[in-house]
Structure formats: structure tokens, C-alpha cells
Design brief:
The chain has 886 residues and is α+β, with helices and mostly antiparallel strands. The protein is built from 15 helices and 27 strands. The strands form 7 sheets. Strands 9, 10, 11, 12, 13, 15 and 20 form a 7-stranded mixed sheet that branches. The longest helix is centred in the N-terminal third of the chain and has 32 residues. The two termini are 50 Å apart. The N terminus and C terminus are likely disordered.
Length: 886
């Protein structure tokens, strides 16, 4: 075969392959777009290796009034627990009657559902009912001689009731005998009376109510009758008048009168699953603090595991005092000024390279974090939770700018001018509905009126990198940018005029409500009037606040991300009632929590919290036109697309920039960002420098801090490990931090680079090089982006993370991250050291050289028709599966 024929055959094969890949991609993506969001799937917390399945109680068979086979109970995680959600499920239970779902706290309520299931968190591994958090008996003292804590003494003054929101949950069993719920477990920090920690085990108790007569309604002496004749005469309301003993999830209690509590029969059917908790920083032995650190609340769940792992390390323990409540801007300021609490500052954005610093410093990549748009939204018809949602930058811009006309109502004569004519909320916005069709399978919530729930997102107040990154991403999108400037969308919705970028320019780093207007007010009566007729809009005067209605809509939370999480879990919007005053305070009461089954709240938080609590998260539109959710693969793919800032050496996604790896990456989650430690390269004692280096070496070690898991020292769920480029930077930086000539542990990593497939092109100072990227076994062309130096002759800085697009391989070459003391990575000093990126030139050029050296032989090897390269390409190698926490 001639070279010409071989080339033609290769081109023909390549064209056929490209057509096949393109057709498959179109078909697959079309299916993703056309399939409606899954509305009626139950929440599922991530299982791990400590998931257990145990024997449950014998099933009660109402039709024959007998018991049947034993059921089973499964808990998704039972060890290394923190304050988080676990998935509890069961099989072989008695199906609940009275409907497949009931809204807790709303009429007709649980008294219409027979055979419900209750789940408790209880103290100890063999708990009594008095040990179960949320039960009517919790904390009481059992009378002498009683069984399992029933027949309590009279309730004493100052009863030790739950000291954190009640986490008891009730659920129904489906017709096939299965059921499940997501259940939050509390540590001793949330519930001191439970006291669950690394040295005190607790339990999850699953308790089906199979009926019986615990109150003795059918016995002459009112003694309990759980299993004897006629025990089940009072099970359900339809059996005999007044019967509802199998329809009770609160359980009647006649304590103090020497009667059994109504839970006694149900308690006999309980299943107990012991659980154990991970150590927390308080479990570390008291010692002198090795490092004081602060900043980046988004990273705190990862840092908690790292800090505990470091202080408990047998060979080289380091104690870290971490202040997670301080946001990144404050932490950067404290670090630069040499504050005593900021030996290290955690951040996702770099400090101003021109800012003065008390000491030289460098950035150490720790992991990759993300911003998650979480939600608790229920179908108003079935009351089942909706688990999937798509959002784009413009929809988020609408939510963050108070642009929905929440105060509009039927028959309204005048409207709030800043949002007049806009949809009343997200769920009837034509753009949202077009993006999230239901196909008749479910329904989105009905939009609120004056007394309805607020749909503005629950967000954290104060200056944060999270807000800056979020609003920067929004402004990178042309549709969102045009909307914010005042251009209506194609359905006619416009931005709230108080938020136009001409008066309130994005990006911002602090979410502050800008609109407090309302309908026009008659100055003589103080009531809203119709500008056209001059007549009152509200003749009865039921609201005294029409003129300032929008000031009640939205109040960003000032107490941090944990409070954002709590508000979402409780489905409590952060609005204030506009139409009435409190009789107690004379002010406006906060909006009430929404009932489970009729929720419609959205919150913005970090991916660590979203993963730990198994929260539904929205899929967001990336630059490649795909909607991607914040899963570990989506975040890991995005991290490989980072570009490097030549001034600081830090990385970020190039939102809105064409011809970058990210612009063509359909798998990338767009709100992914790196997490850094700002650490001094000199100006501290050798002992402190050693502590800092040792801690950061453990965090960046792929045998511990970069290994996903829930054990101390591992990478917590919701975060993804460093890319090979980040690993290289971490190694160089840690070497610069460590006292010169001092011994230190090394960190091993594995990885492989891309294959260069074409010649680079230059546009201004931007160099774009085509590279072959393989994802899920499918090769495609992506781009490596770098920046030319001032001389224009070569790459001096700015190598992107896309240069490490190759998949990490456990069998690849091993290289040390101990670093070289001659390759210092400091990027700041007392006069803003400009040499930082230059010190990255050597490793960057080395990586590029290795790629180029490998590219030529690899291309010849792989392209030879019928040769060894073809045979290698035909192999199907197994690929490791990755997910949060595993």
C-alpha cells in the first residue's frame, strides 16, 4: 500500500469515525434535552463502604391478621459520620394506607395514614425510648420496674427536650413493601444531650407502627395489649369507631398516670442500627497550636477532615486552629498584614498582586470546590419532591435581582413599577418552563401571591469569593449580561430597574438588596392607589406597606453557610411578612417555614454541604452548551480546563472565552473553582514553616488528603482532587515553604499528559494548541491555552490546566511532590514579588517538553494502519468509577 493510499484510508476512517461520534453525540444530547426532569424520585444519600443491611421486624399482614417474613432495614453509611444526611430504606414492611404521600403538618395529616414508619436518632447502641431524640419521652426518667422506658414518671419542670431542631422523621411504605427517607444525624455539636461523637456511639432506630392496643382501650384494666386477642381492633379508623392506633406517628402519652405510652406496641417492632462518628477537631489532644488559619467557608467540610487527620497523624501530627467563619477577603487581608490568626489563609481568588505583604508567600492548590444551586421544591399535586432542575446564567440573574413581581395578585390595579409586567415567580417564567418541561409527568409549584412563599434564593451575606465568582460567571454569559443591562428576554421580562448594570454593575462580592419600592401611595391615607384612576388598590387597608413592598422580599443571611443550609432544610425563606405587624414586637414577622410536600425554596451554597446532605442541585449551562450538575466527574472535568493567571500563578475557568478547553468541554460543571492556601515562604520560624509544610503536604498527598472518603485526613464528599497541573504547583510551593535544607515528607502522584495533534496558533498574547483529549474512551480534540511573555517569543507563564487533560492512572509514572528548593514558587512579598510566575517556568517548560517529546512517536505509533497502534486502539480497558465520597 502506498503512502497516499494509506493516508486516504486513514482520512476515510477518520471521517467515518467522526460522523459516528457526532451522530451518537447528537442523539445522546437530544435525549438529555427532551427527557423531562425526574420529578418523583426519592432523595438518595450517597452510600459508602460502611452501608449495612440488617434484619427487620416480621411484616404485619392486615388481611389475615397474622405476621409474615422478616423485613430488612438499610442505612447508607454507619461509620465516620459527621453532621450529615444518610439514606434509610426498608423492604418487606406493611404497605401504608390512605395515600402514597401525606404533607406533614397539613390537613388531613397523618391520622389518615395507617402503618407509617418513624425514624429516630437515639443515644447508645441499645437505646430505650427515653434515649430517642424527638420522641415524646426523650430525656425523661423511667419509673422503677418499667420496660424500655415506658410508664414514665410525671414530666418535671425543665424537661430535657431536644436541644436542636427535631430530627425525628415519619414516612410511608409503598405498596410493594419498600420505603425510604433521607435522615440527618446530629453530632454532639448539634445535640449535646445525644452526645454522639467518636467515643460515644449512637443508633438509628426504624420503628414501623403495625398497630396493637398500647393504651388498653379494649382491656378491662387498661393494660397494654400488643399481641393478644383483639389487639388490632383499634388499628385503623375504619375498623372500629375511634380506632387509630396504627395511624399514629406522634404516639399518645399518658405519662404520670401509670398508663403505657401509646408507642409501646410500635416500639416492639423497632430495628436498631448502631452508628459511629468521625473525630472532630475537639477530639484532638490539647497542645500548642502549630498553625492558625482562616478563610473560605466553602472549604470548611474538607478542612475539618484534613485538620482532624493531621492532628491525629501518628508519625507527624500538626495542630491547626481554623477559623471557618471568616470569609476570603478578610482572610486575605489578615494574612497580608501578618495577623496573628492568619499563618495561612484559605481562598479561591488571589490577592491583588500589587498589594503589599508582611512576608513573601505562595499559593498551594488544595482541591477543587464548587458553588451549588440547591432546592427543596415539591409537586403541588402529588406533594412529591422534584429532584431535577435546569438553570442558566440569565435565570440566576433574575433571581438575584428581585426581578420577579412577587407582589402581583389577581385583580390588582397598580403594580410595582420596577418589575411591572414580569412573571410573579420563577415557576411561571416562560424561560424556566421552556427549559424545564414537565411533559405532564409532574407540576411546578403555583406562583405565590401576597401570602405565598418567597422564591428568591436563600444566600449568604457579607463579602465572599462565592458571590464574586457567581456574579462573574453570570456576566460572562451574553444573554445574562444583556438582561442586566436592561434588554428584556424574548418573552418580555426585564431586569428590576434598580439592578441595571448602569447603576449596580456586576460582578459584585456582596449580595445587597437594591429595591425597596412598592405600589404608588396616597400620601393622605397611606394606602396604595391606582395611578390611572386615583382609587385605592386596597380599600380595606389589609396592608399598610404597599409603598415599600419589595423591601420585605429578600434578606441575605449574615450568619454563614451553615445558616443557609438550615434555612433550606427547614424550607424557611428569608423574607419578611409585608402585610401585617406582629402584636408582640410591633415589627413584621419573618416568613414561615413551608410544609414538607408544598415547598418551593432555592438556596446557593457550596458543593461540600450539598453533597453531605444529599440535596437536589440544579444543572447549569456551561460554555459548550451542556447542562451539567455538580457531580465529581463534572467538577473534575472542569478543573482540567483551568487557565493560569500569569500575574499570580492561580487558576480559574475561562468563562466566556472562545477556543479554550472549557469552551468545548460538554462535561464541565461551570461553577467549579480551585481552593488555595496562601502560605509564607519566609518570615516565620522554622518550626512554624515546618508545621505549615507538613500539613499542606498531607492535604495534597494522593494517599490521604486527595483520596476521596469520609475518614479523617481524606477528601470529603463534594470536593474533587487536584489535577496533575495543580499537583505540580503544590509540590513546588510546599518546597518553597519548607525551611531550606530541612527534611520533609514527600507526596506521590500519578498522571499522564495529552497528545499534541496540531500546530499552535497565536492571537495577541494567547497561544492555543490543539490536543487530543480522551473522555470515557472517546477521543476528541481540545485546546491547550497559554500566554506569551512580553518578548512574544515563547511561553513564559500561563500554562493551563488543560495541559493535563489525560486521565489519572494508578499505574502511571510516579513523581515526587517534595519539591525542589531551587524552584521556589513564591508569588508575593513585602513589595508584591513579581517573580512568582517566573519561578513556575521551569516545571511548565518541562511538562511542555515531555508532551512534545512524546507526541511525535505516539502519533506515528497510533496512526500506523494495521500496526501495533491499531491493535492498541482496539483494546477496551476498564476505567475506574468515581463519585462523591468514594
Amino acid at each position: 500500500m502506498s503512502p497516499r493510499e494509506a493516508g486516504a484510508r486513514r482520512r476515510k476512517g477518520l471521517r467515518a469515525y467522526s460522523v459516528a461520534v457526532f451522530a451518537w453525540t447528537v442523539t445522546f444530547m437530544t435525549a438529555l434535552v427532551l427527557l423531562p426532569p425526574g420529578a418523583h424520585t426519592t432523595a438518595v444519600a450517597h452510600a459508602d463502604a460502611t452501608s449495612v443491611t440488617v434484619q427487620g421486624p416480621p411484616v404485619w399482614l392486615p388481611a389475615t391478621q397474622t405476621t409474615g417474613p422478616d423485613g430488612t432495614v438499610t442505612v447508607s453509611q454507619t461509620q465516620n459520620l459527621v453532621d450529615q444526611v444518610v439514606h434509610v430504606s426498608w423492604t418487606g414492611f406493611t404497605p401504608s394506607t390512605g395515600g402514597s404521600y401525606v404533607v406533614v403538618g397539613a390537613a388531613p395529616g397523618w391520622n389518615t395514614v395507617a402503618y407509617p414508619v418513624v425514624v429516630y436518632e437515639c443515644k447508645g447502641t441499645n437505646p430505650k425510648i427515653t434515649d430517642c431524640y424527638g420522641s415524646n419521652h426523650y430525656g425523661q426518667t423511667a419509673a422503677p420496674g418499667t420496660v424500655d422506658g415506658f410508664e414514665q414518671n410525671a414530666v418535671a419542670t425543665g424537661l430535657n427536650a431536644p436541644d436542636f431542631p427535631n430530627n425525628e422523621l415519619a414516612a410511608v411504605t409503598n405498596g410493594d413493601g419498600t420505603g425510604s427517607l433521607d435522615f440527618e444525624v446530629y453530632t454532639a455539636s448539634q445535640s449535646p444531650t445525644l452526645g454522639c461523637d467518636a467515643t460515644h456511639q449512637c443508633s438509628i432506630v426504624v420503628e414501623p407502627n403495625y398497630g396493637g392496643d398500647p393504651l388498653g382501650n379494649g382491656t378491662p384494666d387498661f393494660s397494654p395489649n400488643c399481641n393478644g386477642p383483639h389487639a388490632h381492633d383499634f388499628d385503623v379508623p375504619s375498623s372500629v369507631q375511634g380506632g387509630n392506633e396504627a395511624s399514629d406517628v406522634t404516639f399518645d402519652s399518658l405519662d404520670g398516670l401509670n398508663f403505657s405510652g401509646g408507642e409501646q406496641c410500635a416500639w416492639q417492632n423497632r430495628t436498631v442500627v448502631p452508628i459511629s462518628f468521625a473525630p472532630v477537631p475537639g477530639a484532638c489532644a490539647a497542645s500548642a497550636t502549630g498553625i492558625s488559619a482562616e478563610g473560605m467557608p466553602m472549604l470548611d467540610r474538607a478542612l475539618t477532615q484534613w485538620v482532624v487527620g493531621s492532628c491525629l497523624a501518628g508519625n507527624n501530627p500538626v495542630t491547626v486552629n481554623y477559623a471557618s467563619g471568616l470569609t476570603e477577603p478578610q482572610a486575605r487581608t489578615d494574612f497580608l498584614t501578618g495577623g496573628p490568626g492568619a499563618d495561612v489563609a484559605f481562598t479561591s481568588l488571589p490577592a491583588d498582586p500589587a498589594a503589599s505583604s508582611a512576608r513573601p508567600y505562595t499559593y498551594v492548590p488544595l482541591a477543587n470546590d464548587g458553588i451549588a444551586i440547591t432546592f427543596a421544591v415539591d409537586d403541588p399535586v402529588t406533594h412529591l419532591p422534584i429532584r431535577n432542575m435546569k438553570l442558566n446564567a440569565r435565570l440566576l440573574a433574575k433571581l438575584l435581582t428581585q426581578s420577579y413581581d412577587l407582589e402581583a395578585f389577581t385583580g390588582q390595579k397598580a403594580d410595582v413599577q420596577s418589575v411591572a409586567g414580569n412573571p410573579t415567580c420563577l415557576y411561571n417564567d416562560p424561560e424556566f418552563l421552556a427549559l424545564n418541561p414537565t411533559g405532564g409527568a409532574f407540576s411546578w409549584p403555583v406562583c405565590p401571591g401576597l401570602s405565598g412563599p418567597d422564591t428568591l434564593p436563600i444566600v449568604m451575606g457579607g463579602k465572599t469569593d462565592m458571590v464574586h465568582q457567581l456574579t462573574t460567571w453570570i456576566m460572562s454569559d451574553k444573554n445574562a449580561r444583556d438582561f442586566l443591562s436592561g434588554t428584556p428576554d424574548q418573552w418580555g421580562m426585564h431586569v428590576d430597574t434598580k439592578y441595571r448594570t448602569s447603576v449596580y454593575p456586576y460582578p459584585i462580592d456582596n449580595l445587597v438588596p437594591q429595591d425597596s419600592t412598592g405600589e404608588p401611595i396616597d400620601p393622605t391615607t397611606g394606602r396604595a392607589i391606582d395611578p390611572a384612576t386615583g382609587q385605592p388598590v386596597d380599600p380595606q387597608g389589609t396592608s399598610r406597606d404597599y409603598g415599600v413592598l419589595k423591601s420585605f422580599e429578600w434578606n441575605p443571611i449574615q450568619d454563614g453557610l451553615d445558616d443557609v443550609l438550615r434555612h433550606l432544610l427547614a424550607a424557611t425563606p428569608t423574607c419578611v411578612g409585608a402585610g401585617y405587624l406582629s402584636n408582640v414586637t410591633g415589627g413584621h414577622p419573618k416568613c414561615a417555614a413551608e410544609n414538607l410536600g408544598s415547598r418551593g425554596v432555592i438556596a446557593i451554597m457550596d458543593t461540600g454541604r450539598a453533597a453531605a446532605f444529599s440535596l437536589p442541585t440544579a444543572s447549569l449551562l456551561n460554555d459548550a452548551g451542556s447542562y451539567v450538575s455538580p457531580t465529581a466527574p463534572g467538577m473534575a472535568s472542569a478543573a482540567l480546563d483551568y487557565v493560569t493567571d500569569p500575574k499570580t500563578g492561580t487558576q480559574s475557568l475561562p468563562w466566556g472565552v472562545a477556543h479554550t478547553a472549557y469552551a468545548g468541554d460538554t462535561a464541565a460543571y461551570p461553577l467549579t473553582m480551585p481552593a488555595y492556601a496562601m502560605a509564607p515562604t519566609s518570615g516565620v520560624s522554622d518550626a512554624k514553616a515546618t508545621h505549615i509544610a507538613d500539613f499542606l503536604a498531607a492535604v495534597t498527598d494522593n494517599r490521604s488528603g486527595q483520596s476521596p472518603g469520609t475518614a479523617p485526613g481524606q477528601l470529603a464528599p463534594g470536593y474533587v482532587a487536584n489535577t496533575p497541573t495543580q499537583e505540580n504547583q503544590a509540590g513546588v510551593a510546599i518546597a518553597a515553604i519548607r525551611p531550606k535544607g530541612g527534611p520533609g515528607p514527600t507526596t506521590t502522584v500519578t498522571g499522564s499528559g495529552p497528545t499534541v495533534t496540531g500546530s499552535p496558533t497565536t492571537s495577541g498574547s494567547l497561544v492555543v494548541t490543539p490536543v487530543t483529549v480522551t473522555k470515557n474512551g472517546t477521543p476528541s480534540v481540545s485546546y491547550l491555552t497559554s500566554t506569551l511573555g512580553a518578548g512574544g517569543g515563547g511561553v513564559t507563564s500561563g500554562l493551563t490546566g488543560s495541559s493535563s487533560k489525560g486521565a489519572v492512572s494508578s499505574s502511571g509514572p510516579v513523581r515526587s511532590l517534595g519539591g525542589s528548593t531551587t524552584a521556589a514558587a513564591a508569588v508575593g512579598n513585602a513589595t508584591a514579588d513579581k517573580a512568582g510566575p517566573g519561578r513556575l517556568v521551569l516545571p511548565i517548560l518541562l511538562v511542555i517538553g515531555l508532551v512534545l517529546v512524546a507526541a511525535g512517536p505516539a502519533a506515528l505509533f497510533l496512526s500506523a494502519p494495521g500496526g501495533l497502534g491499531a491493535r492498541v486502539r482496539g483494546l477496551r480497558l476498564p476505567r475506574p468509577k468515581r463519585r462523591f465520597g468514594k
